[in-house]
UniProtKB/TrEMBL annotation:
Gene Ontology molecular function terms on file: guanyl-nucleotide exchange factor activity
The protein's role, per its UniProt record: Acts as a guanine nucleotide exchange factor (GEF) for CDC42. Promotes formation of GPHN clusters.
Native source organism of the sequence: Dicentrarchus labrax (European seabass)
Record carries keyword Mitochondrion: no
Name of a matching Pfam family: RhoGEF
Name of protein: Rho guanine nucleotide exchange factor 9
Length: 588
């Protein structure tokens, strides 16, 4: 089973046999995976001083030590190909392991008058099936003439200008290309199911038996929701098998399967968000030799490949990122008149959105330490922590605020998070110090625009204003910005907040208790290192405004004809909160 689930479930290899008279005979081997005999030939070439280069077909993002990272199109020098799944290679001065299914292999052209025979094993992924490859054969006695069996290679011809036998990949129509992609998708899905089963039965089940070594919290961190993913994938593969046409794979209609299960793929978000914590927890346990021996015993008992447990647990992260690549390849070879075309196109859009949102939520979790640090710097904090309900700073800035009719206008600094709007007041002397003054539960309020002029609810004339109205009572808050552009940004930010909350509810996104504890520990560590205390916190983040953040003033005269205006301050902003405000993804 390939740990890295990429292309390569079907590979075409060309083996070379030398005749007694120096003639070349070429035969085709189409078995899945690089046949062991061919890998032996490659290693013989390598050990004999020949250079074998591999061209990357997919990007390879490494998570474990001694893995070789590369991007599609990079050229890797193959140093050892004895293992069918993982090869040892070199890029520049860096060496490491990489998955064989992520590359296609090409030999380096020999120098003239050498006796080396070069062998090529192109990975027959749909992306490269029309690529022309060359095989260089030494011709001591002049030009090469194809011997018996050469005709098995379609479109092969001899190039007399450079004494190379040029072999074009077999011409295949679009149906055949589509069949290849379908077969690859089905093959990788079957292997992936086996892989998930190994994790659940080979590792997790055995860990649960050892209550002396693992508690429930540890297992939740290490394995996340892997069992939910396993159950979901089994249902998904069952539906794929129903749509799979074994006799004519190109007629298979698998696009609807992705659309029917699109909501189920969101469970990968929780697993991906938890993966870094899983790696950290495993790293702690592996310091104890008992756990190293235990996990190795689990692997051997389940007869799994020789990969460490953290490599196995990485597979679901890689898998969800491969779906858009596979669907894009499938769409490429699906004719527009094919009954599956519009479903595949829709499935590709869905899976791209899933991976994009998973990455976005991963980014949010990486920023929760900054949010916890911000809260620790605010004086007189009351009530629940921000992270109990929120995970993202959406927008921030200064506004004038009136809470009730005929009430006094107050200048406050507002921080809009998902689910809540936090109000703070600047210190009169130290303007970089904030005091907590309350919060508004955004789940209970709706945003309304306020037209410039007299407002009936507050009996005052307003400009650049908007309101927050309680859905269950008559409670109303009115806010006034200094410019129309700033008001528009706030309205857009509130819209973005509601959209984010709905998406989080859809996929069940939340911050785990473990992640909250880790954020709190980070804050304590940073506070101790920097000597920051609650009396001298950093300044608040500035509003996301191209103009300098202003100190807004409201006239004290609340006469009927008065219109609220604001003057601008030239006060600078502290670097810490400039960085904090950059956490807000909302764009102006």
């Amino acid at each position: 089973m390939d740990l890295r689930l990429g292309p390569g479930s079907q590979r075409t290899a060309l083996s070379h046999r030398r005749g007694e008279k120096g003639s070349a005979r070429w035969s085709r081997a189409g078995t899945p995976g690089a046949p062991s005999r061919l890998r032996v030939e490659m290693n013989d070439l390598i050990s004999g001083g020949s250079i074998v280069n591999a061209e990357a077909v997919w990007d390879h993002v490494t998570m474990a030590d001694r893995e070789l990272a590369f991007k599609a199109g990079d050229v890797i020098k193959v140093l050892d190909a004895s293992n069918k799944d993982w090869w040892w290679g070199q890029i520049d001065e860096e060496e490491g392991w990489f998955p064989a299914s992520f590359v296609r292999v090409e030999p380096h052209p020999p120098q003239p008058q050498t006796k080396q025979v070069f062998y090529i094993n192109p990975i027959a992924t749909p992306r490269f099936q029309n690529t022309t490859s060359k095989l260089w054969v030494n011709q001591e006695d002049g030009g090469a003439e194809p011997a018996e069996g050469t005709s098995e290679v379609q479109n092969g011809h001899l190039d007399p200008t450079n004494d190379c036998l040029c072999l074009g990949s077999p011409l295949q129509n679009r149906d055949q290309m589509r069949a290849n992609v379908i077969n690859e998708i089905m093959s990788t899905e079957r292997h992936y199911i086996k892989h998930l089963k190994d994790i659940c039965e080979g590792y997790l089940r055995q860990c649960r038996k050892r209550v002396d070594m693992f508690n429930d919290d540890q297992l939740k961190v290490i394995f996340g929701n892997i069992e939910d993913i396993y159950r979901f994938q089994m249902g998904f593969v069952r539906d794929l098998e129903k749509q799979y046409n074994t006799e004519e794979p190109h007629l298979s209609e698998i696009g609807p399967c992705f659309l029917e299960h699109q909501d189920g793929f969101w469970i990968y978000s929780e697993y991906c968000n938890n993966h870094l914590d899983a790696c950290m927890e495993l790293s702690k346990l592996m310091r104890d030799g008992r756990y190293q021996h235990f996990f190795e015993a689990c692997r051997l008992l389940q007869q799994m490949i020789d990969i460490a447990i953290d490599g196995f647990l990485l597979t679901p992260v890689q898998k969800i990122c491969k779906y858009p690549l596979q669907l894009a390849e499938l769409l490429k070879y699906t004719a527009q008149e094919h009954s599956d075309y519009r479903y595949v196109a829709a499935a590709l859009a869905v899976m791209r959105n899933v991976t994009q949102q998973i990455n976005e939520r991963k980014r949010r979790l990486e920023n929760i330490d900054k949010i916890a640090q911000w809260q620790a710097s605010v004086l007189d904090w009351e009530g629940d922590d921000i992270l109990d309900r929120s995970s993202e700073l959406i927008y921030t800035g200064e506004l004038s605020w009136i809470y009730q009719p005929y009430g006094r206008s107050q200048q406050r600094v507002f921080f809009l998070f998902d689910h809540q709007l936090v109000l703070c007041k600047k210190d009169l002397i130290r303007r970089d110090i904030l005091y907590y003054k309350g919060r508004i539960d955004m789940d209970r309020y709706e945003v309304r625009d306020a037209i410039d002029g007299r407002d009936d609810d507050f009996n005052v004339s307003v400009k650049n204003a908007f309101k927050l109205c309680n859905k269950d009572s008559e409670e109303i808050h009115i806010f006034l910005a200094k410019k129309p552009e700033e008001k528009i940004r706030w309205l857009r930010a509130f819209h973005e907040e509601r959209k984010m909350v709905q998406e989080d509810e859809k996929i069940g996104f939340e911050i785990s208790e473990y992640q909250k504890r880790q954020a709190a520990m980070t804050v304590r560590k940073v506070t101790k290192q920097k000597g920051v205390n609650r009396c001298t916190p950093p300044s608040y983040p500035p509003p996301q405004d191209p103009l300098s953040a202003g100190q807004y003033e409201v006239t004290e005269d609340m006469a009927q004809g008065e219109v609220f205006e604001f003057s601008q301050s030239k006060r600078g902003q502290a670097p810490f909160w400039q960085n904090f405000s950059r956490l807000a993804p909302f764009k102006k």
